Amino acid sequence: MKILAIFIVFFTFITFQAIGGIKYDSIKILVEDQAITKNEIEIRAFELAQARTGKQPTAELLSEFRKEAVNQLVEESLLDAKAEELQILVGEEDLDRELARFRNQRRINEIEFEELLERQNINLADFRKTYKRQIMRNRVITRETSSKINIDDELLKAEYEKSESGETLLRARHILVLVSKNAADDKVSQALKKITDLRKRVLEGESFEKIADLYSEDPSAKTNRGDLGFFKKNEMVKEFAEAAFTLEKGKVSEPVRSPFGFHLIEVLDSKKEMKESFEAVKNKLKQQEYQKQFQKLYLQYIATLKSNANIIFK
Q: Which domains does the chain have, with CATH numbers?
């Protein structure tokens, strides 16, 4: 969980309580000797649903995000246990330095930071405790995965030399109907019917832009009417990119399912990007390779922790 999400977690808890959240708690999962409670799962599901949809989550929407919430909380508990096993500690002075770095990155001073917490009704001691745990998790990940990443400049250059003279950029617009990847079959069917009906209206002559403005559930549609501007293939989620980059200009795609929901896509234009020199893109390529290796190592590491852990679902 990134540090920004820590603000969301606390804010979500306050919001969740305000709308009459769970009054009674119970243990739902044991990860080694750590308990994950029903309240924690509901709060995390609320956080995920609100962040992904931008809406006040309903009971039905919360149910779609519980599985992901459980997975996140289990992973965090495993990392907490590993931090204890490895004796990774964060003292108060160390925490003060990390918080100062956090404030400096966001260009806010200590007073402004505390005022921000106060506006969100977040207790400073609680924030410090949560941030401390996150630092410990990050240090576990750095020790167990990041430290094993090796980027060879010569291999990187060889891959660059094999690449095309310039990447293709597409300009496209889309209409989105939200449905989570874990949604029940009836919810998926409803979303598919809605997007299919919208496609029919576009094919019958209604303005794609108008339909996007009125019905797209992408929050940006109200300002861009679905127009995403120019983008590279790797800048979009896999399912969307594969559909867009094989679509004929001016044609409206069939409904495309991505982790966000169903999309209708129309390609408006394409162009070739001039290929930059290796030195100009070297740092960018290194970052991409780092992320690629990190993702692979992290997933392998978490899978190993899960397979070796005593996890009990009640």
A: 3-144 (1.10.4030.10), 164-272 (3.10.50.40)
